Each structure stands twice: as C-alpha cells, then as structure tokens.
Amino acid sequence: MSPELAQFLVFLVALVGLGYLVTRPARRQQRQMSELQADIEIGDEVILSAGIFGTVRSVDDDRVGLEIAEGTVITVARQVVVRRVPDQVDETEAPPAEHESED
Length: 103
Prior knowledge:
alpha+beta
C-alpha cells in the first residue's frame, strides 16, 4: 500500500468519525422530541416552540387542544410541543437553608 493511499484512508476515517460525533447529539435530541410528542397526554403541562405554556385538554392524531388560560383552548399542531413543564418545588415545602453560627 502506498503512503499516499494510507494517508487518504486515515483522513477518510477521521472525517467519518467526526461526522458521526457531530450528528449523534442532534439525532438523539430529535428522537427524544419525537417520543415526547407521541407521549402527550391530557393534563400534561407543556411548552410550545413559540414559548407558550399550557395544559393539554385534548389530543387528536396530529393536533393538540391546549388550554392557555382558564376557559381558553387553542388547537395547535402536535409538532410544536417542545417539552413538558418541569415540576416546580414550592418554596414553603423546601427544606430551610442551613446557616453556620458565628459563635
């Protein structure tokens, strides 16, 4: 095998490896997004790609009824749901912060 061919093969393997490393996180995020959109259930609090927060009130094949205010339900495409609203910890239920005494 000639040295030029060996260098080309090393370059080609490095290029393929770099391409894999760059696209892998994007594919994982896309898979997680698809799973989230498929698993939407009534009562879930979600965030849309436009930054709108709401509670799911109905789910059809490709549409979601989202209550954005009391009595206001909008219909959006399932694909615009980007994540669930994380559970917030109530500050009254949080353990008190420990303070060091200055004795």
